[in-house]
Amino acid sequence: MPSNDPATPEPDFDHLLRANLERVFNERDPARRAAAMAELYVAEPVMYEPTGVVTGRAAIAEVAGRLLEQSGPDFVFHADGVAVGHHGLGTLRWHAGPGEAVAVTGTDAAQVVEGRISRLWVLLDPPAG
């Protein structure tokens, strides 16, 4: 659980959530993605997606890899602004698509425990239009 001690510094939400976007969800090499997962996530993380719940580092890494494979070689996630957070909860807005094109937008909300992502909610915005 996050500490209630006001002397305990907050994690660097911006660094952590940007690293997750770049090193996990934009990483096409499975070995590098797994190494990033080990660094950025607790041992048994949970990810909540609109279509289901994914448990464990390997399963989350597999979802990220499958998403990149299905979306094509130019598909990439981009952070929008700076991640914000406090009391163990951080959020980062993002957009994704081929190159700079925008196919989907959303927000990652992460529970951070001892500097690592414990739970990640992937919140997709409704399609424009």
Question: How would you characterize the overall build of this protein?
Answer:
The protein is of the alpha+beta class and 129 residues long. It has one domain: Nuclear Transport Factor 2, Chain: A. It is built from 3 helices and 6 strands, in the order H-H-E-E-H-E-E-E-E. The chain has helices at 13-25, 30-40, 57-71, and strands at 41-49, 52-55, 75-86, 89-98, 104-113, 116-124. Strands 2-1-6-5-4-3 form a 6-stranded mixed beta sheet. Helix 1 packs antiparallel against helix 2. The longest helix has 15 residues, at 57-71. The chain is globular and about 40 Å long. The termini are far apart. This is Nuclear transport factor 2 family protein. It comes from Paeniroseomonas aquatica.
At a glance:
The chain is an alpha+beta fold and 129 residues long. Helices cover 30% and strands 42% of the residues. The chain has one domain: Nuclear Transport Factor 2, Chain: A, CATH 3.10.450.
Q: Supply the helix-strand structural class.
A: alpha+beta
Relative strand content: 35-45%
Tell me the total number of β-strands.
Answer: 6
Main sheet summary = 6 strands, mixed
Name of the CATH architecture = Roll
Low-confidence stretches: none
Integer average pLDDT: 93
Organism: Paeniroseomonas aquatica
Protein name: Nuclear transport factor 2 family protein
Domain SnoaL-like: 24-119
